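Table S2 (continued). Query chain:
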Amino acid sequence: MSLADDTRWMDATDQAALVAGGQASVAELVEAAIERIEALDGPINAVVIRWFDHARDLAVRGDLPDGPFRGVPFLLKDLWAAYEGQVLSNGNVALRDAQPVSPADTTIVSRFRDAGLVTLGRTNSPELGSVPVTEPVAYGPTRNPWDTDRVPGGSSGGAAAAVAAGMVPIAHASDGGGSIRIPAACCGLIGLKTSQGRITVGPYRTESGLGVELCVSRSVRDTAALLDAVHGPGVGDTVIAPPPSRPYIDEIGADPGRLRIGLLDHHPRGGAVHDDCVAAVRTTASMLEALGHSVEPGFPAPLADESFTQRFMAIWSTNMAVGLEAYGEAIGRPLVEHEVEPVNWAQAQFAHKVSGVDHAKALAATAEFRRATQQWWADGFDLLLTPTLAEPPVRIGEHDPVDGDPMAGMRRAAAWVPFTPPFNVSGQPAINVPLHWNDAGLPIGVQLVAAYGREDLLIRVASQLEAAHAWAQRTPPAADSPA
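Corresponding output:
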């Protein structure tokens, strides 16, 4: 077997150990990943911007940082993560054609580099990251390696598909409404959304917003080790999560004690939840009870608030408008309607009609929601267990715009992803754990949510579940058919 085959299902920790121990060179690991991408990505369409020559150059230079992931091949999401000297298109047709080059790294990208990761290119993302599927007009749909008629989720769908297919062991992802957890659930991966302010999003964005950044991975230890490498504030940050008491990697295998866990196995606002998702969360509840935890029905009352979606969308649409203006700045002129996907143009136009007072009221309402939601943990619960999604991975095209109704896809999204956006608003950490597959062989994720700042507890419990119910040996059949 070739090194590309031998390392395909190794996690990033094991691949880094090969380099550290002299069993493989950085150049060999990078070439193995390039070989896999070229062989596997045709029907999946995960890696849409490729920097293979750049990666090869980094691999043979002697100045690669000696970080914990030295030599491990990596992919950046094509959304906001600027990498000095390379193109960033954000899934937009106009930026794809204009090829704007980033003048500097964002802070987290610099930290990825310092960790020793070697970036091979960018993964597909929906324009502006606005919908939970990855089907931008600019590059076409990314497909789920477990079933290529299905979505890999979004907005980090390209990242999740690449990791699930074994192209790379770990990839950058970001989450403003579920965009780490949703694709992790669709693709059978670990996806941790960190606390607001745990990792800087500087220098161009604000930690007080909805979005955070980290990764999707195949193992809990990879996520913990990468979080150790990149967490912490940047210059000028105004929201800073409390520092951990010890490295996150030390939480792997640590005894979490007996935890009080609330179970939410239905839609909190009365919508439908697929039987597969209900089965997954109830099975996980039984697993947790078998591990000694107390699981009881219960969830924060604000999750049932019918006005939540309206509040969330008021801020979300404003973010779309601001994002489109940033795109215009990147290419030196404003974008026009035909250069923007209908759902995002509609949201931006709506945002331009929202007054400053209306936006301030939305922010105040979300602050009220945040405090009331976090109070549930303060009152004695340790974790909340929910499905990650209300349905299994949906089919490609279900979120497409409808003539005369550009927001049809967003309404479809609201029905599919009711469980993830609340914790972007509350700022709490949440993790997708891949514990269940349905009869059709599709991954069905479950979500655990902790109190603000308690990523340590999520990592501890996820690693406990991983040890008791290992999932890493499961690999997608669709990924075994090279292009």
